């Protein structure tokens, strides 16, 4: 499918799939969305704690990079696993302007290395951040009680409803430790029902710019 680079409303770039009219991030602001959904409503719940994170949809690496920067700022130990079946190209990577938009020139090499490092191998960035990229389909995930936090950033239900199924959320529930949390930009009723069916307790929160609501799901025991 044809993909092109576009600029979102906060100035940061993303990738758009023309046939689906679907983007890797919100058109209203890629960076704003990542910071609101995954940092403010996810990572911030685990301040001053060593944490393991699973990202569903590594994509452009924006969520991983923002998490690295936040962890560095908070002196937090983070073990990050990013799952991606269809990695972006080197040409697409150089068009992503996250380093500039985040004023993170000192860590430009980190963002680049996140994409260049080998798949299936753990890489260490800085003193307290590790990244393992896994090239696999979401339905192939079989982790058990491993993660404190899941960033669920799959393509939207409108274009890939199978990624938001009860079967997928059962895998997410199983992958979380007790009292773990999943955050996502989504807020559809059908998604909430699938989450609840597998055992999640679901909260509806204010969404990022351009979106009224989002979900946070907890594995409460």
Describe this structure in words.
This protein is an alpha/beta fold and 221 residues long. It has seven helices and eleven strands. It has helices at residues 30-40, 62-74, 90-94, 98-101, 108-116, 166-175, 189-198; strands spanning 3-7, 13-17, 22-23, 51-56, 78-83, 122-125, 129-134, 147-152, 176-184, 201-206, 213-218. The strands form two sheets. Strands 6-7-5-4-8-9-11-10 form an eight-stranded mixed β-sheet, with helices on both faces. Strands 1-2-3 form a three-stranded antiparallel β-sheet, with no helix packed on it. A hairpin with a 3-residue loop joins strand 6 (122-125) and strand 7. Helix 1 (30-40) packs across helix 2 (62-74). The longest helix is centred in the N-terminal third of the chain and has 13 residues, at 62-74. 38% of the residues are buried. The model has no long low-confidence stretch (mean pLDDT 96).
Notable traits:
221 residues, alpha/beta, eight-stranded mixed sheet, 7 helices, 11 strands, globular
Topology:
Blueprint: E1 3-7, E2 13-17, E3 22-23, H1 30-40, E4 51-56, H2 62-74, E5 78-83, H3 90-94, H4 98-101, H5 108-116, E6 122-125, E7 129-134, E8 147-152, H6 166-175, E9 176-184, H7 189-198, E10 201-206, E11 213-218
Parallel strand pairs: 4-5, 4-8, 5-7, 8-9
Antiparallel strand pairs: 1-2, 2-3, 6-7, 9-11, 10-11
């Amino acid at each position: 499918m044809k993909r092109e680079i576009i600029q979102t409303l906060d100035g940061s770039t993303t990738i758009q799939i023309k046939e689906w009219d679907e983007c890797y991030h919100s058109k209203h602001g890629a960076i704003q969305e990542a910071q609101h959904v995954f940092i403010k409503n996810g990572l911030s719940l685990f301040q001053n704690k060593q944490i393991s994170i699973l990202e569903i949809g590594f994509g452009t690496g924006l969520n991983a990079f923002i998490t690295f920067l936040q962890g560095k700022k908070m002196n937090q130990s983070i073990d990050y696993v990013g799952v991606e079946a269809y990695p972006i190209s080197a040409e697409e990577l150089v068009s992503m302007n996250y380093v500039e938009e985040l004023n993170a020139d000192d860590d430009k090499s980190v963002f680049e290395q996140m994409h260049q490092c080998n798949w299936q191998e753990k890489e260490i960035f800085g003193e307290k951040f590790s990244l393992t990229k896994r090239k696999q389909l979401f339905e192939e995930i079989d982790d058990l009680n491993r993660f404190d936090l899941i960033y669920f950033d799959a393509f939207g239900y409108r274009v890939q409803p199978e990624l938001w199924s009860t079967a997928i959320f059962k895998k997410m529930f199983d992958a979380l430790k007790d009292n773990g949390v999943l955050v996502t930009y989504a807020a559809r009723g059908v998604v909430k029902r699938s989450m609840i069916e597998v055992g999640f307790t679901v909260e509806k929160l204010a969404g990022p710019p351009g979106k009224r609501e989002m979900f946070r799901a907890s594995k409460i025991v």
